[in-house]
Amino acid sequence: MSFPTSDDVWPFARDSAQPLLPPPRFAELRDEGLVEVKMYDGAPAVLATKYADIRDILMSDAVSSDGTLPNFPYVSDATRANRGERRTFDRLDPPIHDEHRAMLASNFTQKRIRELRPFVEEVVSNLLDEMEKANGSADFVTMFAQPIPAQIICRLLGLPLTDAPFFFDRIHIWTNDQGNPDDIVKATAELLEYFDQLIDERIGAEGSDIITGLVNKQLVPGHISRPQLLLTFHLLLIAGFDTTTNMIGLGTLLLLRNPDAWRELVETEDPELVPSAVEELLRFLSVAHSTHIRLARGPIPVGHQLIPAGAGILAPQGAGNHDPAQFPDPDTLDIHRDARGHLAFGAGVHQCLGQQLARLELNVVFSLLPKRFPDLQLDVPFDELPFRPNSMVYGVESMPVRW
Length: 403
Description:
15 helices, 6-stranded mixed sheet, alpha+beta, globular, CATH 1.10.630.10, 3-stranded antiparallel sheet
C-alpha cells in the first residue's frame, strides 16, 4: 500500500487521565492522511482519522462490511468468534442488506418513534421515582442506565422483562473484544437457542411487537430464512440494550464533569437545548468505537490517496468526530454546538437503523434527569471508575452517584 506506515497496533489505547476522549494517537496521525497500521495478528489495515476521509469511506459503494471476505480486519480472536460468521444485515452488502433492512424499516420510522415518546417518558419517570427511594445514593448504571433501554427494547421486541438479566449477561460476554472466544460462541448459541424457541411460539400468533411481525410477515411467507431471522433478532437485542445503556451512563458522567453544561440543563426552559446537547454528547463520546471496520471491494479514492481493492479499513467514528477541521475545539463539550453531521451513527447504507429511537431515549433522559436530580454527583473519585476499553461499545461498568 502506498501509505505512510506506522508500527501502531489496532486498537489504540485511550489516555487514562482522559478516558472520555478518543485515543490521542488519532490526533497525532491525522496530518498524515491515510496510514497503514497493524492488526493484532500482524495483518495490515488502512486507518483513516480525518472526518472527510471517514465519511467518504463509509459512503463508498466499493466498501464492504462482510466479515467473511478474505483479508477482512479483526481486532482479536474474540471478534473473529463473535463477528466472523455472523452475517446479520449490518454485516451484509447491498442488495441483500437493503432487502433485510427494509423488513425492519417500518418499525423505526420517525412517526413510529414519535408515538413511543409517552411510553419512554413513563419508563424514565418511573425509574427516577425508584431512584428517589434509594436513600440518596445508587449505582447509576444498574439502577437507571441499564433498565431504560432494557424496558424499551423488550417492549418493542415483545420479550419478557424478567429475561433481561439473561440478555445482559450474554451481551456483556459477546461484546468483549478481548474475551474468551469459546465463551463468546457459547453466549451466542444460548441467545440464538432462546430466539429459536421463541419463533415456534410466535408462528401464527397475533401481536404488534417486532418479533411476532417478522415471524409471520417475513419468515412464514419465505422472505427470510430462519437462520437469518435468528441473527436479526440477535442484532436487534444487542443494539437495543448495549449502545443506549452506555450513552446514558457516559453522557451523564460527561455532563457531571462539565458542571456549567449540567446546570444549564437543570435550569433551561429552551426546548432546543436538550436536542442540541444530545447531538453533542453523541459526537463527543462516539461509544460504538469498534464497529466501523470495513474491506475495500474495489479501489476507493479518498482525498489524494487511493485505497486498493482487498485492503482492510479502519474508519473510527471517534477520530472523525474529534477532527478540528469539522468540529472546532473538538475535545471541549459545547452543548450549544451544531453537532449535526457527526458520525456517531455511521454513514452510508449501514447507518444505524435505530438512531431515532436512541435519540428519543436520550432526549427524554436528559430532559428529565437534570431537573429531578439537580445535585447529582459522583460518589467515588473519577479515576476509580471502571471503564470498558475492550468492549465493542465503550462504557462504564458501574457509576456510584449521590444526590
